[in-house]
């Protein structure tokens, strides 16, 4: 019991810069209180004391503002940060090391008893404030759920889901876009990774500018070859991957920003 409690306290000290001492965490953090009470409620639930488990859960809801069904499974080092208004359904499972912020719902979309109605979070998943994760699917290890996202389908491990309905952001594409933006002297850090049409348009402009830089480089190579008298008559001097038509979709970008 005590080693597990020390682990729970330490994970909060590691993740919350506002936490100063173990005593402060133990006495003033409702997220920790909710986890401790849930373990008692879950034990009662799994040992046939259904009403007592529900009563402890009901008391915890009023005391902490966090509603966790006694049937839910919660792993080690789970941190409910602030977490007022969090709802965790009966068949939900939360893996080790997860962080869940305020206003999150791990809810179900089915009314059939005895089925897996609520989501399963893998290890080290972060669920942002106000996010709704609805359904009996899996959110992979290390995934990120953006604030106010509405997730209704599985999220791969290490991916980020944002928007309503949530879409999965391709991490590799984001890294490449950020590198291209840095080379052009523009920081893409402020471009929000969500479904905001302006941010979509900006990301499209960054991708297009990166492509144009590549095409300009190819054209300069072709000009240098043409300026060489020895190969001036060679019609194959233009690189094969040089664009033969304009690919800038100005109309589509204007539609995204509402113009």
Describe this structure in words.
- The chain is α/β, with parallel strands linked by helices and 259 residues long.
- The chain folds into two domains: 2-169, UDP N-Acetylglucosamine Acyltransferase, domain 1 (3 Solenoid), CATH 2.160.10; 172-256, no CATH class.
- It is 40% helix and 13% strand.
- It contains seven helices and 15 strands.
- The strands form three sheets. A six-stranded mixed sheet has the order 3-6-9-12-14-15.
- α3 runs antiparallel to α4 (50-64).
- The longest helix has 30 residues, at 197-226.
- It is elongated, with a radius of gyration of 26 Å.
- 28% of the residues are buried.
- Residues 184-193 have low confidence and may be disordered.
Low-confidence stretches: 184-193
Under CATH at level 1, the class of the largest domain stands as Mainly Beta
- Can you tell me the number of structural domains? 2
Let me know the CATH homologous superfamily of the largest domain: Hexapeptide repeat proteins
Structural class: alpha/beta
| Largest sheet: number of strands, sense, barrel closure | 6 strands, mixed
Biggest sheet, spatial arrangement of strands: 3-6-9-12-14-15
Overall body shape = elongated
Number of strands: 15
Spatial gap, N to C terminus? 61 Å
Number of distinct helices: 7
* Assigned CATH architecture of the largest domain: 3 Solenoid
Give me the secondary-structure topology.
Layout: H1 2-15, H2 22-28, H3 30-46, H4 50-64, E1 67-68, E2 73-74, E3 79-80, E4 87-88, E5 93-94, E6 99-100, E7 105-107, E8 120-121, E9 126-127, E10 132-134, E11 138-139, E12 144-145, E13 150-151, E14 160-162, E15 167-169, H5 171-183, H6 197-226, H7 250-256
Parallel strand pairs: 1-4, 2-5, 3-6, 4-7, 5-8, 6-9, 7-10, 8-11, 9-12, 10-13, 12-14
Antiparallel strand pairs: 14-15
Helix pairs in contact: 3-4
């Amino acid at each position: 019991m005590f080693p597990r409690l020390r682990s729970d306290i330490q994970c909060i000290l590691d993740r919350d810069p506002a936490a100063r001492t173990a005593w402060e965490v133990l006495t003033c953090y409702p997220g920790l209180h909710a986890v401790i009470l849930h373990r008692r409620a879950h034990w009662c639930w799994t040992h046939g004391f259904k009403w007592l488990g529900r009563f402890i859960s009901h008391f915890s809801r009023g005391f902490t503002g966090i509603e966790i069904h006694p049937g839910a499974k919660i792993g080690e080092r789970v941190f409910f940060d602030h977490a007022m208004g969090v709802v965790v359904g009966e068949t939900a499972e939360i893996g080790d090391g997860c962080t869940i912020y305020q206003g999150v719902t791990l809810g179900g979309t089915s009314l059939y008893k005895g089925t897996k109605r609520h989501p399963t979070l893998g290890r080290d998943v972060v669920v942002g404030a106000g996010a709704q994760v609805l359904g009996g699917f899996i959110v992979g290890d290390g995934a990120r759920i953006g604030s106010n996202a509405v997730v209704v389908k599985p999220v791969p491990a290490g991916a980020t889901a944002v928007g309503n309905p949530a879409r999965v952001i391709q991490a590799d594409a984001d890294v490449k876009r950020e590198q291209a933006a840095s080379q052009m002297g523009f920081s893409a850090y402020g471009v929000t990774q969500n479904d905001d049409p302006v941010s979509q348009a900006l990301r499209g402009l960054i991708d297009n500018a990166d492509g144009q830089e590549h095409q300009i480089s190819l054209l300069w190579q072709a000009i240098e070859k043409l300026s060489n008298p020895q190969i001036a008559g060679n019609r194959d001097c233009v690189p094969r991957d040089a664009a033969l038509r304009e690919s800038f979709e100005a109309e589509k970008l204007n539609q995204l920003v509402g113009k």
